[in-house]
Design a protein that fits this description.
Number of strands: 10
Shape: globular
Bound molecules: ligand AN7
Mean pLDDT: 97
Largest sheet: 6 strands, mixed
Distance between the termini: 50 Å
Order of helices and strands: HEHEHEHEHEHEHHEHEHHEHHEHH
Helix content: 40-55%
Radius of gyration: 20 Å
Structural class: alpha/beta
Low-confidence stretches: none
Strand order of the largest sheet: 1-2-10-7-8-9
Length: 344
């Protein structure tokens, strides 16, 4: 039978109410890509779980199929979220599919072009907030407490249920859990979901390396960050809603949460692209963290199977690339000019 999406495949493992009415775009089922050159360099067996290949280009679709399916089944007519961009695009797509109105609040001027375009294309009402993601999240929490609008941020428990499927897929593909799982941490829904998923699936437990951007690293600093700043706008979050659970996941798994600089994030984005895997900046954070740990001898690589979750596609944030690279050269439409330039 052809693939029918995550609720169809893993619904029996997800704690969703009986009224849930499946809304799917055939999300999930993303590839676990072997990385032979990086494996050789690091001395471990490294795989990328490429979540950028979900229908709206990020891992958010795993949680959104569950959250929107529950919301529509309970009769919700409008959904809302705060977002650094990917949640907005995903909520907009699944709401459109379900025939719901969607409203998304984003921090003014801090959302990557591909995400904003997606949210608009799928028909969301996009509202820019003169403030941070954290300010936007407070607003959507308040409005959903006082009105029938449904909240689809990862505070919504069904988002976590759906996102557990990332862990299930990895276990199914590898036969058991890897030794390490590395991933970026922003609002901390994904790390919470993966840990819950691995615990539930009982195919072994990885150590978890959660990675924040240095300018937005509340879980490393141990306190909220009032004015988070990073080029990785997806994880430009100063007060993670599930911060406690993220710290618990790191602790219980005998792992840790660390921070990497924007320079490390951008150089790792290039390393991945040089392997044919183009991810958005935030999505390079997991590997950036692993490389940093390895460089200072804190990563015991030998014989280890490591999965790095790359959460969003590079096409989400094209300007990061075009701004930092020289524009393509321009020549006349002539063979001689081409041969001259190519130098053959
Ligand atoms: C590519 O879209 O918070 O720790 O509003 O887009 O579960 O928040 C996005 C987060 C990592 C962090 N990678 O995941 C949003 C939003 C990418 C992301 C994260 C996000 P969480």
């Amino acid at each position: 039978m052809t693939y029918q999406g995550l609720i169809h495949r893993y619904g029996q493992y997800l704690d969703l109410p009986a009224h849930t009415k499946t809304i799917s775009l055939l999300e999930g089922n993303t590839p676990l890509i072997p990385m032979p050159r990086l494996s050789a360099e690091l001395g471990c067996e490294l795989f990328i779980k490429f979540e950028g290949l979900n229908p709206t280009g990020s891992f958010k679709d795993r949680g959104m199929t569950a959250a929107i399916s529950e919301a529509v089944g309970r009769g919700a007519q409008t959904v809302i979220c705060a977002s650094t961009g990917n949640t907005a695009a995903s909520a907009a797509a699944y709401a459109a599919r379900a025939g719901l109105r969607s409203i998304v609040l984003i921090p003014e001027g801090k959302v990557a072009a591909g995400k904003l375009a997606g949210a608009i294309a799928y028909g969301a009402e996009v509202i820019q907030i003169q403030g941070s993601f954290d300010d936007a999240l407070s607003l959507v929490v308040e409005i959903t407490q006082k009105t029938p609008i449904a909240l689809v941020n990862s505070i919504n428990p069904f988002r976590i249920e759906g996102q557990k499927t990332g862990a299930f897929e990895i276990c199914d593909d590898m036969g058991s859990a890897p030794d390490w799982l590395c991933l970026p941490v922003g609002n901390a829904g994904n790390i919470t979901s993966y840990w819950a998923g691995f615990k539930q699936y009982q195919k072994g437990l990885p150590q978890i390396l959660g990675v924040q951007a240095a300018g937005a690293a509340p879980l490393v600093l141990g306190h909220p960050v009032e004015k988070p700043e990073t080029i990785a706008t997806a994880i430009r979050i100063g007060k993670p809603a599930r911060g406690e659970e993220a710290l618990e996941a790191a602790h219980e798994s005998n792992g840790r949460i660390i921070a990497v600089s924007d320079e490390q994030i951008l150089s790792t984005q290039k390393i991945l692209a040089a392997e044919g895997v183009w991810v958005e900046p935030a999505s390079a954070a997991g590997l950036a963290g692993l490389l940093a740990e390895s460089a200072v001898g804190k990563f015991e690589a030998k014989g280890k199977r490591v999965v790095v979750v790359c959460t969003g596609h590079g096409m989400k944030d094209p300007s990061i690339i075009t701004e930092s690279f020289k524009s393509p050269k321009i020549i006349p439409a002539s063979y001689d000019a081409l041969v001259d330039l190519v130098g053959v």
